[in-house]
Specification:
five-stranded antiparallel sheet, mainly beta, Thiol Ester Dehydrase, Chain A, 1 helix, two-stranded antiparallel ribbon
Length: about 130
């Protein structure tokens, strides 16, 4: 189940008519945050985003889905893998027409988020048990 689905709009395009990679990275970050919040309801900050390689372009009108999955829960951090898929419903320049819903894998990334308190200091993701 995707954490986020977004229709890409003209405001998100670069000079070549495809969607900026940074727009996709921003949505990956949001999807990872949604998944982290399911693990434990804290404020989270992004520490790192690993291994982002774009396999396919994203076009205006594409419906892009972001599928997060939990990789690891550390003491103060959560690692989330986000897979990104585009459903072609926008203009397809190669086919000179509107896409017909075919799905393509766009990219994937591992995002490491750190749980923080109101002052930005790391806190445990899960309460630690007190030993008597």
């Amino acid at each position: 189940m995707p954490a986020i689905k977004v229709v890409m709009m003209p405001k998100d395009t670069n000079a070549h008519g495809t969607i900026f990679g940074g727009v996709i990275l921003s949505q990956i970050d949001l999807a990872a945050g949604v998944e982290a919040f399911k693990v434990a309801p804290h404020l989270y900050v992004t520490k790192a985003m690993r291994e982002v390689e774009f396999h396919e372009p994203v076009y205006t009108g594409d419906l892009v889905s972001f599928f997060p999955s939990l990789v690891r829960v550390g003491r103060t951090s959560v690692t989330i893998r986000v897979e990104v898929e585009a459903e072609r419903w926008g203009w397809d320049a190669a086919k000179k027409g509107i896409g017909r819903g075919e799905k393509v894998k766009v990219t994937e990334a591992e995002v490491i988020l750190v749980a923080v308190d109101g002052e930005g200091r790391p806190i445990p993701v899960r309460p630690e048990t007190v030993k008597a």
